[in-house]
Structure formats: structure tokens, C-alpha cells
């Protein structure tokens, strides 16, 4: 499914100042992954901002379709795993919260 949506670049999401009203948007066409398999297939591509943002958009979309809340998704991200350390998981939790608000 091709969705056109407004998304911040990864760097802009990391540096959002909530008091600032001056935020630049980047509008792009992405195919938002609708399944776990489609998200995993992104791993076959060269990893860059677009792939990361696309994967996160897919995870958020799938979570919403399952009826999960932002808090449910953040709780899953914070669970211990073998890939990300706690600092990276906390950054990802915050990143997902910002992306959650931006995605349709």
C-alpha cells in the first residue's frame, strides 16, 4: 500500500524542540510495510535514514492495526534484547513517540 505522508527526517525527529513552532517537514512517498515479513525484507537493503523511517512507520502502522497504544509499543521497545542496549532502546522509545504523532 502506497501512502503519502509527512515525516520528519531522522535527524529532525531526534532534535525536535517541543517549544519551537519552526519545524521543517519532508514529504515523501513510502511503501509502508504492512507485515513483519515486509519489515524484515528491508534488511536486504542498504541501511539509511529512509529504510529506518520506513521500518518504524511499518511497526507503528501494524501496532495501531492490532489496537496497541503508543505506551504498549514503547513498553515492547524497552524490553531487554540482544541487539540494542538500554540507551539505544530509550532513544528508540522517544523516536517512536515523535513519529507516532506525525504518522497518519
How would you describe the overall organization of this protein?
There is one protein chain. The protein has 104 residues and is mainly α. The protein is 52% helix and 12% strand. The chain has one domain (2-102). It has helices at residues 10-14, 36-41, 49-65, 70-78, 86-102; strands at 2-7, 26-31. The protein is globular and about 25 Å long. The two termini are 14 Å apart.
Key phrases:
104 residues; mainly alpha; two-stranded antiparallel ribbon; 5 helices; 2 strands; 52% helix; globular; disordered N terminus
β-strand amount: 5-15%
Q: Average the pLDDT over all residues and give the rounded result.
A: 75
**End-to-end gap:** 14 Å
| Number of discrete helical segments | 5
User: H/E series, N to C?
Assistant: EHEHHHH
The structural class is mainly alpha
**Backbone CA Rg:** 14 Å
State the major sheet: 2 strands, antiparallel
Total number of distinct structural domains? 1
Give the strand order of the largest sheet, numbering strands 1, 2, ... along the chain: 1-2
User: Which term fits the overall shape?
Assistant: globular
Identify the quaternary structure here.
single chain
Helix content: 40-55%
Which residues sit in consecutive blocks of at least 5 with pLDDT less than 50? 1-29
- What is the count of β-strands? 2
Amino acid at each position: 500500500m502506497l501512502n503519502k505522508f509527512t515525516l520528519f527526517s531522522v535527524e529532525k525527529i531526534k532534535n525536535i524542540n517541543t517549544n519551537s513552532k519552526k519545524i521543517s517537514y519532508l514529504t515523501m512517498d513510502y511503501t509502508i510495510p504492512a507485515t513483519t515479513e515486509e519489515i524484515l525484507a528491508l534488511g536486504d537493503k542498504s541501511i539509511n535514514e529512509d529504510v529506518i523511517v520506513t521500518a518504524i512507520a511499518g511497526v507503528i502502522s501494524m501496532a495501531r492495526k492490532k489496537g496497541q497504544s503508543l505506551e504498549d509499543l514503547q513498553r515492547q521497545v524497552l524490553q531487554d534484547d540482544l541487539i540494542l542496549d538500554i540507551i539505544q532502546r530509550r532513544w528508540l522509545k522517544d523516536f517512536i513517540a515523535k513519529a507516532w504523532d506525525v504518522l497518519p
